């Protein structure tokens, strides 16, 4: 059997490949998977259960349950003054991951280039290649993990079709203020480069207000806004995301969606619709707890000599482990084998991320304290540990 050359060359997810090692190990504290440790709030779960009891087991519109699209419309308009029509500027997707895949397939022609600032989430490059595009990675490790106007201008050429922006950023937790986004937006508009914006961690911004890219002057018609319920509502397993953008882009994405997925399961959509109505208090409570964990983890990592900036959002820390003399993979494998703490090697998020690891603080305070104690013990035992 002949396998697609693109797929054959594609590497497995750096996150999943590493965590195959964790399966079956006992007493492991996992700080790797990007998943809230909170259970989906009861009111949301109850809505899903009740929908089944009422017999809602059918397909929905390809675009998604109208009740949910209307809820998303109200949420974005009330919170950000961002007005998308639930009829033709919105599509409910199987998480943000499907939204990203659909976006690439909808807009790219063969050999179109897509700019991807790194560190970046693991799927952005592969879905670009699967759609026939060319990912162009921008190393941001020397610019505070942010793409800058100078970097943008360096990488843009006549084949550049789009850019993927994700903020707060997975894996660093770094985010952008309005002024920084406006500078990026001016360059994109000038060069007619479409912006695909993954803002799934937007509600988990700690130090300043999150600014959706589509709210910037002239940006709405040049931006695809991607968001979902997995992170802020602790609904990872429900698999509900949404895309909002120009009518022609959403229509193209919907064509592909209707032939591949058809629609997101109705139970999940009913639960998500309820989440937008009742769960803002739960989101704020989870956010406060993440902020508390952030302070603990980052402070202790720096005390241990692992330089780490304070994340501005999401629930990840991205410390440097260069002082240990170990590579990202060596550090992660040894830490797992010797202390049973699982983290993700920085290289999962790009070649430029050698010398870093990703730690998720979406875990209980007790687990975090124990994991940090084990990391301290590991560093003290390491011959390469530099105090």
Describe the protein's architecture and organization.
The chain is of the alpha/beta class and 387 residues long. It is built from 13 helices and 12 strands. The chain has helices spanning 5-9, 14-19, 42-53, 66-80, 95-107, 124-130, 149-155, 178-191, 247-260, 266-278, 280-303, 328-339, 365-381; strands spanning 29-30, 90-93, 113-118, 134-139, 160-166, 194-198, 223-228, 241-244, 316-317, 341-342, 344-345, 357-360. Strand 3 (113-118), helix 6 and strand 4 (134-139) form a beta-alpha-beta unit. The longest helix is centred in the C-terminal third of the chain and has 24 residues, at 280-303. The radius of gyration is 21 Å and the shape is globular. The N and C termini lie far apart (54 Å). The mean pLDDT is 95.
Q: What is the radius of gyration computed over CA atoms, rounded to a whole number of angstroms?
A: 21 Å
Sheet having the most strands: 7 strands, mixed
Sequence of strands across the biggest β-sheet: 2-8-7-6-5-3-4
Query: Which geometry do the CA atoms define?
Result: globular
Helix content: 40-55%
Number of strands: 12
- Taking the alpha carbons of the first and last residues, their distance comes to 54 Å
List SSEs in N-to-C order. HHEHHEHEHEHEHEEEHHHEHEEEH
Provide the low-confidence segments as ranges.
none
What is the averaged pLDDT score? Answer: 95
Estimated share of beta-strand residues: 5-15%
